[in-house]
Please model this.
Amino acid sequence: MEAPISSTGSSYQRTNTGEEPMDGLQEDNSTITSIGSVDRAAAQRTLWNFVFMSVFFSANHGCVVACLSLATSRLGSTGAWQSGILYLFYTASALLGATYVAKSLGARNAIITGMMLYCVYVGCFLLATISPAIETPAALFGAGIGGVGAGFLWTAQGSYFARASEDYSSFMTEEISTSTSTLASIFAFIYLSAEIVLRSLSTFLLEAGLDWVVVFAVYTAVTILSTLLMFFVHNYSPESQNEGDDYEIHQESTEEGLEPNIPVASVYTQSVFYKVTAAWQLLKMDLKMKYMIPLNAVFAFAGSFLNSYVNSEVVKQVDNSSTRVGIYNAWVSCVAAGMSLVFGQASKKIGNGPVLIFGAICFSGVVLPFLVLPNTADWGVPLLLVVYTFHGTGRATFEGTLKATFADYFAYEKEGAFANIILQNGLSGAIGYVLTFTLLCSEESRYCIKYSDGSLHNVFIFEALVAVTAILAVAGYLRASALRRLETISASGGQESLHSDSILIPLAATNAEDEVQQ
Model:
């Protein structure tokens, strides 16, 4: 049980005294020998519980990613429509509904709900393969269900991650930012490693002489098994049902200043309307969230550029083969998995900020070679590997460090924070894929590239978009970090404090210059 929130001026602070006893894979951890002492046994139980959650989650999601990558090749145009519907429902669920499910059911149960819906998505591939006559309706139905499941899953995973980080920080008596960095790097490594294995599984099964029915049957079985195993991890109670876990938001941040009289959280934030729209409410009321948008957007834009242009056109020209695209994508996951551990350790020493900035620079590195050397006919495999390495390194910061930062910056609204990642990244990704088909040109030139289907595409605008968004990502993070610093100073009574067991509620101060002068 967490202690009530105490007010300090116009900002709020919650003291974390640990969670209720854990069930499932964890034993009772509610007893700490003394205030401020390290309880390593409880910390290890929390850590291993989080590891098991990550393994089950990653196995389930890895099967979905594997099927998603096979959608177009197996289902043709139906697969393309299926993927589009999946992302549409994914983004929509983050804006309307995912936060309500996570807040009402609790993080673990919401994860299980999302995993169950993922089982339907993967199962529809099996159904479409067995019964070609119902291929289209099965694929599209599965896409809608899977998209909703993805919204539930990632919103709840973020909440679970944040709650586990709070526990681990409390038991280890370390700064919450250190705990979030540790757990984020562990999750990213497990998640990306599972993705590599499960993406490759279809190739191994087919080369062993098995058919596509067996491939999708195996993926379906893994999703179902991982879902069942998730019942054995600890179930954090829904925050809305935890006495003393309410918080207050008395001020809304805008560029003009502070708007008072935002309803008290114990009433307003417990309403159904708030739970359903928590992502939008957080985006509207906390100025830091607006400044974090470019960090999510640059990952989505770089990914869209890589998938739509590099994978489909550049690889076959540089490597003289289109069959090696899978190898390059596997390399991205390998780099991301390895670098997630490196960044997890680096964040403990230098903080998340430098790592996030480096990640944004890496995403710009995905397009920089194309801006400087647009004629890919002059490229070699080493330069192509550099592009994929940049993307893998940037992705490691997105899967680990960025989510750790969201857990730190928006700890008072976990579900809304991670739903915003889905919302911002999903919308940006959709825009990126739309631009792929709309940025056309009329005459072949250095940056007007002729695709293999004969169409002409203006790749310069897309490349410039990624580069500019990377610059905005750095600037946006620095601004959000400055606001966070002001919150910390205000909450500590004018003296900067980063006490490990305190979670700060945003001060929502936007006139930073005036605050510093005062």
Summary: The longest strand covers residues 11-15. The two ends are 37 Å apart (CA to CA). Residues 135-172 form the longest helix (38 residues). Confidence is low (pLDDT under 50) at residues 1-35, 240-268, 497-518.
